[in-house]
Amino acid sequence: MSVLRFQIRQPSGQIDQLFIESERVLIGSGAHCEIRLPLDQAAVEHALVQMGPAGVFVQALSFNPPPTVNGIPFTQGPLAAEAVLGVGQFQINVTRAEGAAAQQAVGGAQPKKKGGASPVSLLALIGLAGGGYMMFFMDAKSDLDMTQYKAPELWGAPVAQCSQPAPDRAGAFALERFGVGSSLRERRPFHVQDGINAVPIFETSSACYRVARDEPAAAEAMAAANALRKEITDDYRTHRVRLEHSLQVDDLQTARREVKILLQFTEGKQGDYVTWLSNLDRSLKLKLGRPAS
């Protein structure tokens, strides 16, 4: 197993060093990431560092903000020993270290090993001067109790306003929105986010039809929005119940499948529940003896 050495320069200028015994290290704000950065600096999963036969390789997983190598945004590519990986205001240097050298560098301590058999461990807690930030380095192990997390709502309040005040333009806009919503609704069985996005589009169509004084069309659009909202909400609740049951009976294969589905429902959302799902997905992969990806 490779040992990767990470030198991390914080926005304050402080430099911290961490050795991780793994060929795959996630950098992000998620609790499951091996290198965890503050939420305002990194996405839940921002970059993936991997060790291969040709050396260290890095892949961008989020572009808000875009990660950089030597100040230049990238998608994926090799990471030279002298290169600087930038994530938010953090600058990270990654090199390969032999196990003995790594232990000597940390005063004889064993480098961190990635694995799902041991409990979550806190390796470092660093307070950043003046910022109140914290950085955690944690194992890929999650708590299986889902009852402590509240699942996020899939939508906000229903759309009630039309952006087109003129009746003729509102009618044309409503027709166009209804067509878009109908197309997304058809794709919903293949991509749940299309169905989720269709709901406010149908609601917008209904609001604009009302501005255009076409009440039958407004009612049809609102009925489409309500039916789709109820259908998706019921599916969302069903998959959460299935996940809870599969965890209770230790059916890890089913649990992993349900986690994948729920991650599709919550795509783009943030919060403890989404972080927990991502953490659980990673933990289940480890428990099932499959390489994390």
From TrEMBL:
Alphabetic keyword roster: Membrane, Transmembrane, Transmembrane helix
Claim: Transmembrane helix is one of the keywords in the record: yes
SUPFAM superfamilies found in the cross-reference section: SMAD/FHA domain
Transmembrane segments: 120-138
Highest taxon listed in the record's lineage: Bacteria
Protein name: FHA domain-containing protein
Species in which this protein is naturally found: Pendulispora albinea
